[in-house]
């Protein structure tokens, strides 16, 4: 239908009105569209183009080098280390978050006293910014006055007290713990909402058939939660592979790159070292990786028909 | 919610254990926040003396020091306030205008444009951040408030249009007719009749955008490097990273408290909207 006018407010044959409407609609859309195209779409498209060049900031000196940046990436030990860290971060986070969120959400869905209060409280860390959480946990992990070491010393486990963010062995796990603290509430809420959608009939049928707590959980609740789980995993992939602020503020990739992730490396290369070609190549690769994994999940993890 | 059938005997141990774990995790959430708060009132020496000790006297000056003086948080707070408020105004106006036009006027390409906007939610900021940074430098927009505001508005449009499109679509057509017949004019209809009706949608968009922009870090870090113009997240992060080498820890803790307060306040007021909005969007999407 090529009519541009609100169907019944003016006759279509009135040429003057039609032009008026076109201007009106265009005028409404133009500012948003211009900003979006200019500052979001164009830079993103440009990214792929810049990634094919060597460009260190002197504007005229942009050399086309084809896929050289990507070849360099594939052999870059730092980049590979970053990917490893992102993957580990994702695995640890998912296992903890999904496990705990499932537990808490099912507990809350049982109508325990204070469920609403708990749900509200658990989301608290998520509303305060990731930067604030990162700074807070830097303090918590502080070897001298932080409460983690304080707690360990209190229970006479002094030997375990260490500079958590200062040792390569503990830095990434420590960062992961902060992230789990930050994000768990969101996933509890997500699963809780999903559980609410599960039909009561199914639950009661399971009960009548004699399925007890754990069995019911495994064979009824979990399959029905598959949809929400799938969504949660996708969110986790996106957020873990794209993590930046958490690492930047807590450890800045240290100690000795023990917590370096793809996006902090991008920042270092592109913004700090002005290696724009290489930096955008990192960004493009990361985007493709995330997209690829997400699409794989969409394809192989089928949404249940019980929606 | 599932209800245990009458014939099943409730196992108290099960319930008690669950309540215990819930309570324990609540402590895990609350305790760091409480610790942060009372440590903010200690002097630097007290902080190092004992992790658990409560402050002897309440050092309220930590807050003043964080805000002004060395801390500069007051300035960062002001910068964030400026940027966020102006951005919000622009986001809501531009977003509403675009969603209104795209959902209530049927023309070829309307759906395409709408999808184009909404799909922007899927693309990570870091994909475009380097060219954006270069673009802004070229146009003299880097390290400026208006530059950052424009970037914030652009990146917030997808989500905002997504939210508002739903609301505008649901408004009845007869209303527009009636208003035009009353001599309201097209823009008047939009601004004075339709917008007020979309208030719930505008509120949701406003709250989520506020929280997102107030806490935004990567764009502000890359686009605003001049220290005096930093936004709050960038500012507190810089303060925390700088204070490695012996400084006013009390003020740092106080600074962190100051940073957390606005979003906690917003959360307490809008908690129900936030929780339902988060999951509704996620599940329907």
In terms of quaternary structure, what is this?
A: heterodimer
The Rg value of chain A, from CA coordinates, equals 26 Å
The order of strands across the largest sheet of chain A is 1-2
Low-confidence stretches of chain A: none
Helix content of chain B: over 70%
| Morphology call of chain A | globular
Largest sheet of chain B: none
Largest interface by Cβ-Cβ < 8 Å: A-B, 108 and 102 residues
Order of helices and strands of chain A: HEEHHHHHHHHHHHH
SSE sequence of chain B, one letter per element: HHHHHHHHHHHHH
Structure summary, number of beta strands of chain A: 2
Task: Give the end-to-end Cα distance of chain A, rounded to a whole number of Å.
Answer: 33 Å
Distance between the termini of chain B: 23 Å
Average pLDDT level of chain B? 86
**β content of chain B, as a range?**
under 5%
Provide a compact summary of the structure.
Chain A has 307 residues and is mostly helical. Chain A is built from 13 helices and two strands. A two-stranded antiparallel ribbon of chain A has the order 1-2.
Characterization of the model:
The complex is a heterodimer of chains A (307) and B (285). Chain A is mostly helical and 307 residues long. Helix content of chain A is 71%, strand content 2%. Chain A has 13 helices and 2 strands. In chain A, strands 1-2 form a two-stranded antiparallel ribbon. In chain A, helix 8 crosses helix 10 (213-241). Chain A is globular and about 70 Å long. The two termini of chain A are 33 Å apart. The mean pLDDT of chain A is 86. The radius of gyration of chain B is 24 Å and the shape is globular. The longest helix of chain B has 36 residues, at 249-284. The relative contact order of chain B is 0.13. Chain B is an all-alpha fold. Chain B is 74% helix and 0% strand. Mean pLDDT of chain B is 86; it is low at 4-9. Chain B is built from 13 helices and no strands. The chains are: A mainly alpha (307), B mainly alpha (285). At the A-B interface, helix 1, helix 3, helix 4, helix 5 and helix 6 of A face helix 1, helix 4, helix 5, helix 6 and helix 7 of B.
């Amino acid at each position: 239908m090529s009519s541009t006018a609100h169907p019944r407010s003016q006759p279509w044959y009135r040429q003057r009105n039609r032009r008026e409407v076109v201007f009106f609609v265009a005028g409404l859309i133009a500012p948003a569209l211009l900003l979006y195209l200019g500052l979001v779409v164009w830079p993103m498209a440009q990214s792929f183009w810049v990634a094919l060049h060597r460009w260190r900031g002197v504007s005229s000196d942009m050399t086309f080098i084809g896929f050289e940046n990507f070849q360099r990436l594939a052999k870059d030990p730092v980049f590979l280390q970053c990917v490893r860290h992102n993957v580990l971060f994702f695995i640890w986070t998912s296992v903890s978050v999904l496990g705990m969120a499932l537990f808490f959400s099912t507990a809350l869905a049982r109508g325990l006293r204070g469920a609403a209060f708990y749900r509200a409280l658990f989301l608290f860390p998520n509303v305060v910014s990731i930067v604030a959480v990162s700074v807070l946990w830097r303090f918590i992990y502080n070897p001298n006055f932080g409460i983690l070491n304080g707690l360990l010393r209190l229970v006479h486990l002094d030997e375990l007290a260490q500079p958590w963010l200062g040792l390569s062995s503990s830095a990434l796990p420590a960062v992961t713990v902060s992230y789990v603290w930050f994000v768990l509430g969101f996933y509890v809420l997500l699963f809780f909402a999903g559980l609410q959608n599960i039909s009561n009939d199914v639950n009661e049928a399971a009960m009548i058939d004699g399925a007890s707590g754990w069995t019911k959980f495994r064979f009824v609740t979990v399959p029905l939660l598959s949809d929400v789980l799938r969504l949660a995993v996708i969110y986790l992939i996106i957020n873990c592979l794209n993590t930046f602020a958490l690492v930047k503020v807590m450890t800045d990739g240290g100690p000795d790159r023990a917590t370096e992730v793809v996006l902090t490396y991008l920042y270092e290369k592109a913004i700090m070292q002005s290696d724009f070609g290489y930096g955008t190549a990192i960004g493009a690769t990361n985007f493709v990786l995330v997209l690829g994994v997400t699409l794989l999940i969409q394809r192989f993890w089928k949404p249940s028909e019980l929606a | 919610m599932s209800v245990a059938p009458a014939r099943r005997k409730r196992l108290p141990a099960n319930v008690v254990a669950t309540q215990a774990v819930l309570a324990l995790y609540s402590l895990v959430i609350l305790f760091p926040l409480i610790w942060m708060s009372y440590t903010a009132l200690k002097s630097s020496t007290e902080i190092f003396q004992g992790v658990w000790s409560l402050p002897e006297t309440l050092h309220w000056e930590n807050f003043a020091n964080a805000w002004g003086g060395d801390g500069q948080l007051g300035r960062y707070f002001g910068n964030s306030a400026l940027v966020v408020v102006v951005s919000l105004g622009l986001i809501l106006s531009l977003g509403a205008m675009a969603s209104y036009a795209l959902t209530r006027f049927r023309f070829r390409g309307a759906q395409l444009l709408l999808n184009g906007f909404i799909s922007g939610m899927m693309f990570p900021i870091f994909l475009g951040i380097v060219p954006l940074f270069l673009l802004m430098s070229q146009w003299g927009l880097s390290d400026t408030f208006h530059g950052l505001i424009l970037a914030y508005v652009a990146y917030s449009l997808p989500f905002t249009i997504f939210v508002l499109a739903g609301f505008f679509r649901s408004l009845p057509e007869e209303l527009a007719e009636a208003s035009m017949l009353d001599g309201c004019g097209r823009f008047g209809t939009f601004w004075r009749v339709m917008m007020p009706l979309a208030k719930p949608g505008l509120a949701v968009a406003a709250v989520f955008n506020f929280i997102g922009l107030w806490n935004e870090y990567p764009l502000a870090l890359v686009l605003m490097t001049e220290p005096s113009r930093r936004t709050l997240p960038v500012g507190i992060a810089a303060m925390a990273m700088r204070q490695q080498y012996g400084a006013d820890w009390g003020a740092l803790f106080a600074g962190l408290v100051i940073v957390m307060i606005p979003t906690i306040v917003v959360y307490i007021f809008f908690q129900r909207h936030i929780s339902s909005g988060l999951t509704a969007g996620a599940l329907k999407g």
